[in-house]
Specification:
The complex is a heterodimer.
Chain A lengths: L10 H6 L5 E7 L9 E5 L5 H5 L4 E3 L7 E3 L4 E16 L23 E4 L1 E12 L4 H7 L6 H8 L13 H7 L4 H10 L3 E3 L2 E3 L3 H17 L7 E2 H10 L4 H11 E5 L5 E5 L1 H12 L5 E2 H11 L15 E6 L2 E6 L9 H11 L2 E3 H4 L13 H8 E4 L8 E4 L1
Parallel strand pairs in A: 1-6
Antiparallel strand pairs in A: 3-4, 4-5, 5-7, 8-9, 10-12, 11-12, 13-15, 14-15, 16-18, 17-18
Chain B lengths: L1 E6 L8 E7 L17 E7 L5 E6 L2 E21 L17 E15 L4 E2 L4 H14 L2
Parallel strand pairs in B: 1-6, 2-6
Antiparallel strand pairs in B: 3-4, 4-5, 5-6, 5-7
Family (chain A): Belongs to the DCC1 family.
Protein name (chain A): Sister chromatid cohesion protein DCC1
Keywords (chain A): DNA replication
Amino acid sequence: MEPCMLSISGGAEAVLDLQENSSISVAYHPLYGPHDDLILLELDEKLLNDVIHQRVFLRGHPDENAVFCTQSKTYAVKFVGSSNSVLLIPSSNQVPEDGDSQYGNQKKCDRDVASVIKLAPGHLELVEIAPKLDKIKLLLSENPYKLEDVSAMEMEETETKKIGLYRWHDLVNEVQASEEELKSGLKALSAVEIGGHWRLVDESCIGMILKMLLHNSVLNDWTLSALDEDEVLNVLEADGFPRNIAHHCLSVYGDKVNKGEGRCVWRLNERRVCVHYARDVLRDGRMRIDQFIDEWKKRVPEEMLANFEMLDGEVLKEKLGVETWVRPFKVSSLPSDPSERFSILFKERPKWDWRDLEPYIRDLSVPGLSLEGLLLKFTRRVQASSEAEPVFSAR
Amino acid sequence: MQIQLKCSCGDGSCPEWAIIELQGVVEVQPSFQDQLQNLEIGKLCRPSSQDVYTFTVGYHELTGTKVPLKKPFLVLKKVKLGDTEQSSNNDSADSAKVELEVVGIIRHRILFKTRPKALISQPVVKERARASGSIGSN
């Protein structure tokens, strides 16, 4: 490629710095063409820093709509066409290389010419969106960590069952989200990194460990609100559970309490433990409410008080004749996309009281849209009188 | 799959490109359709010290202004890497066949949105044409 004569007054600069009483010729660039590989992206000034420091990634598979990700946020990329003629003029020191037209084209880098390299059909714009985190659960459910894996680990089997195993880097490539949002997503699912792979621990596996923990707490006279981490892990390890999985169990059902002096103390979370047992009781589907409560209270540890309000977003009550029944309906198994979420909710029940609906939508988050906004967009609200409870149905 | 947006501009010094924006379409005479390269489109003038510009294309004169963009545009270049560039290991999640690089930034455009003014020839010339026309119509 012939080197362009370095000229300060040619190209875009000549246009932008055009002095008063002067003119410049605007011409088609020697390499004028469609140049579909040149794309305009509208970018908020505050994202410029991230771009300059190369902290921005485009993520998505060919069959997905690409998203633009910074370290902490995710944006949809939309093409906005223009009916105007947008003449694109490069900076004078810079000419996009085009292998095909290297031959035979006289490059004119005249100081009096501003050259148009292409006509831009439009530009890309960014719209902040909620990260698409549902895929994490989909992927990690391919190969949940089960009790059988415990012994497999002990034998250090390396190559077996590599299907459905994802490392952090694999998840970054598969999930359309920023890294921070991905981290939060993993945390919300109580996923744990084992042997370099992120795993969901099978419910019955973690339930078994909890059972052993509670069993041991009775045997050893531990206080559930002040469990000593080392003591607990040592005992569970002796029972055959890997230390990191036992630790994971503590983090799922408990909260760390800062006691200082280098001791790690945990307090079991009453709600999380009780919810676990409620799910256990309802394993086979629905039950009459009085039966359910009886059974539930029996299974919950002595020190804990099972309270129906804990089951917001976990179960639904329904009246069948004179009886009230409960059945499992977990918000955590519903899609995070608002449109899909409301669709499933209204399929489940055509009409919802606010009191019943709220736990199933309080986790919805769409940038730029409040909960009221979401309700307005996806539901029809009917209120019989000013004192009556509003009822929501599909739009 | 992920593609890193590369930028070798250095701190805030991306080459600045420009946009001239017109309503309507620039038409090239049919005989020049295949030889657009280097063909002049028009003349851009700044008659005074104000940010007012005229753009003369053929016999039309457009008047416009230099407008800062609400949000800057980045000019990105998509590069398709050849097969030899792909990494040979099994972990192909990283070896994207496409790279995206920032090659410029646009902060202003010269926007023309008024009706073009037709530049008509002088009355004297018109009369002569009429005269010659009458001779020709014999």
